[in-house]
Records
---
Amino acid sequence: MEDAGEMKTPYLIKVCGITNPADAVAAVDAGATAIGINFFTGSKRYVAPERAREIADAVRGRAAVVGVFVNEPLESAKAIAAAVKLTYCQFHGDETPEYVGRFQNAFKAFRIDDAHRSIDFDDYHCPAFLLDAYSEQEYGGTGRTFDWLLAREANEFGRIIVAGGLTPDNVAEAVDTAQPWGVDVSSGVESAPGVKDHNAMARFITAARAAFIRQTT
């Protein structure tokens, strides 16, 4: 994987579920610090590794490229990460601490319902944790929110990325409430699954960046 120099940035604004180079470039041009590419074959936003490399190359050196995996066999995930030259791997499934520990730059995602006390953050040694809304049917991209105060409490365990139901209209409130290191959006800036609305992306990123700047000044 590529060197994770982007971790030095004071905050992360990630547009996930990118499925084509044009959307990737539009997100980064608008100020996104990371894009996410989904390698879970059960996702409506799945991208084959060979296509993912083309997307990643379109923004290489300008933003972090994050690969999203769900219970992917270890060697397969490693091969994809190397082929696409991912900056980070983001794990949304039931991956064990031992599995996640095999990756130098990993985000572990947890789905939150009404608490996070059952999550063993300390078992995972990651640059950041992503908190998403719980769903029995899907591993992410549901458009649902959760209690952002739980994310704020989770800051004691490390850098937190808030996901789940974020939109241009509520991301500032999410940042103000959760005080996270990062935010992650997918369905909230789409005209259809995997098709990004460039205007919505720009509005989301502008609102998120303004909220992060307020938080750090």
---
Amino acid sequence: MSLDAKLKAECEQFIQGFGSLLLSTLNPDGSPDLSYTPFVDHEQRFYILTSHLSAHTGNLINDPRVAVLFIESEETADQIYARRRLRFQCEAERFPRQTPAWDDLIPAFSSRFGEIIDVLSALPDFELFALTPLHGQWVKGFGKAFDFRGRVEGEAAHLNPKKERDQER
């Protein structure tokens, strides 16, 4: 198995351990907002169903740039400074009601999160978004960090701060 295939498998398995993701959006004044939301993983995209009562919903409508983070819990981490984490820079796309995407994805939310989705999806302030990964980073320990394109596509680059320092000299 190639390094890229191995990293992709590790990342996909890591994502499967989460029911929600952390997301960073931009407020209208350009300041960052950090929040979380449950998600459905479908066709290499993260789908979220969010309320206008959450700042991130309006932020995503106004600016589709979003960062997503999956991070190992402090309780299971061997070392607090080296928690495994997977970060994606994404682009958000909004799907209105009465669209095929809404009709296809709401049942996936119901299957994953239960009857609450029947209530939430009927509320007029809930929006459906797809977050498409553009590039990201997988950190699995000290000296074990990798940048990649898309959703862990080929050609992952190992980050090596010592190599960069040596090149600066």
---
Amino acid sequence: MSVRSNLDLEQDPRSIIGTRLLDAPRKLVFAAWTDPKHLAQWWGPNGFTTTTHAFDFRPGGVWRFVMHGPDGRDYQNRITFDEIAPPERIIYRHSGGDDVEPVQFTQTVTFEDIGNGQTRLTWHGRFPSAEQRARVIKEYGADKGLVETMARLVDYVASMSSSST
């Protein structure tokens, strides 16, 4: 059996890189990112829910959302989309700030059609420094959270596939 997911913390000390193989066509995987109704079903680590307050899916558009932790804590987030190239790539910035979690990074998400109805999804989060990456891993469990989020996406896309057949 092939490796279905991978977390790379070694390649670049400023990056968290996650890769996951999905048994779903690229167009469907990309669609799971385009609507807050979809995102609410899979975004975040295990036990988290997500409430979207604003979602403008275009370059320069902003996604404002709250991740509700299983411990009752709310995590305010703001993402600005820099590039959207359907169905190949999404690049966004999590800019941090006074009204959101103090986390800054740029995320490049690529959707690679590898044939046979499968998609290789790669999340490449790049932080301003190795220290910032280390802080986000220590304080937020961002590395484990990415693996869990990718697994939740796999499950959600499978349910999208089965409901459309």
---
Amino acid sequence: MENERQKKAEESIRKKFHKQLFTPFAKACKNYELINDGDRIAVCISGGKDSMLMAKLFQEIQKHKKKSFDLVFLVMDPGYHEDNRDLIISNAKALGIPITVFESIIFDAVDNIDKNPCYICARMRRGYLYSKAKELGCNKIALGHHYDDVIETIFMGMMYGAQIQTMMPKLHSTNFEGMELIRPLYLVRESDICAWRDYNDLHFLQCACHFTDTCSTYNEDDITPSKRLETKKLIAKLKEDNPYIESNIFNSVTNVNLDTVIAYKKDGVRHHFLDEY
């Protein structure tokens, strides 16, 4: 029998939060062709609110049977504290998500890295996930990046990287032939994810790395603000004067006019407007 928490969480997706969560999830899957017949998708669960909701949305869209595909709910333990691992397992059980857990040594590997440990950790995580997913017969991995992650990435690229780029809704893997990465929460707002979490009185991991020992009670305001957090706050400030700022940032990378661009890169090759002037 489904427990009450699982039933409430699933019903809230179908009813109360259908427009805010399931509709943009399904729209992203359709518009960006993220799910195809015959797919076997590794839904990568970190233990946070985004990936846990993504798992539930995948279960829901699978019930509609518009596409025939299989799911594997993959949890990588990179060296979690025991309490954090237990929290992931108990949340998955409470929500009716049949997870497959495997271990890696990522946290130990990055503990002694002084420069960009978070970047190295993220790259290593993705490599381990691709490898395990392929071992399990999957052709895609799904990550839980949402709309707010996308616009923050665009803005950060301009401010700190002097470039215009975005977080793509899907990518071909360069190291694992035949594998793809998809982001089905691409159009889902973080505030709506938080509203679903709070409505169902769910408590997920916020951060679980060795650099944050109090992972289950982690508060981003208690640590030195990261560039992403600074960007999040800046966008919120700009929104006070321009309510369309978020959608404008998002749409800016869908309306690129190459006739007004000084230079751009395509497949690693730099093109300059003077080349054809």
